[in-house]
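tokens incoming
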């Protein structure tokens, strides 16, 4: 398993090309799995279920992508974790994989004193916002090619939340988005990365037969 951290924002096209190449190498040549931690410049991405009506007032470039889900925002202050994992060694269960990703986010947030949960019918991970309403703090969008995963998760550490105004995030208009910073938690990216890494193996274990 390789862990990679990019300190400068990575252009989306560059990240997508690198993900595709690594996933191909895993499928065809048995390359190492990769968890890539990065930030993007401000941008929006549209998933396979995106609705044109949810693109409200795009302030930034919009990129189409093959991941599941609808519109989402990426930008500085948001930790993106792209996962190129071989699910033939992890149970070949898509629903379980999503549940594991949710658990990974929940355990990471718990280390910062944030109680979070999943909600039926609402993708992602949710917390109680400063206004007393539920808000999304982490999003999940994955794609599988021959059981190798691409894309992954995004966790709001300290992004400019006003940038979400250009879209209906994940097609859910009734609830807002928040971040660790908005919750009064001044976490650094390196601190978040350390907790993500600490919980990875327990939350996304390999099948013992392939360990």
């Amino acid at each position: 398993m390789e862990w990679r951290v990019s300190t400068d924002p990575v252009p989306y096209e560059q990240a997508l090309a690198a993900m595709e190449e690594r996933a191909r190498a895993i499928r065809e040549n048995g390359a190492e799995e990769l968890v890539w931690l990065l930030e993007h410049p401000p941008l929006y991405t549209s998933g396979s279920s995106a609705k044109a009506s949810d693109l409200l007032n795009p302030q930034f470039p919009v990129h189409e992508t093959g991941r599941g889900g609808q519109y989402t925002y990426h930008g500085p202050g948001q930790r993106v974790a792209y996962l190129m994992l071989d699910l033939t060694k992890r149970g070949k269960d898509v629903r379980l994989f999503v549940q594991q990703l949710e658990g990974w986010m929940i355990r990471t947030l718990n280390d910062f004193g944030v109680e979070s949960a999943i909600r039926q019918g609402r993708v992602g991970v949710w917390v109680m916002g400063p206004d007393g309403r539920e808000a999304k703090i982490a999003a999940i969008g994955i794609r599988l090619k021959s059981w190798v995963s691409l894309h992954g998760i995004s966790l709001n550490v300290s992004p400019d939340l006003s940038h979400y105004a250009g879209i209906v995030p994940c097609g859910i208009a009734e609830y807002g988005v928040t971040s660790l910073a908005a919750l009064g938690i001044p976490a650094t990216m390196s601190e978040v990365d350390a907790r993500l890494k600490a919980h990875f193996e327990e939350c996304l274990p390999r099948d013992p037969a392939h360990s």
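note: The domain at 2-205 is CATH 3.30.930.10 (BirA Bifunctional Protein; domain 2).
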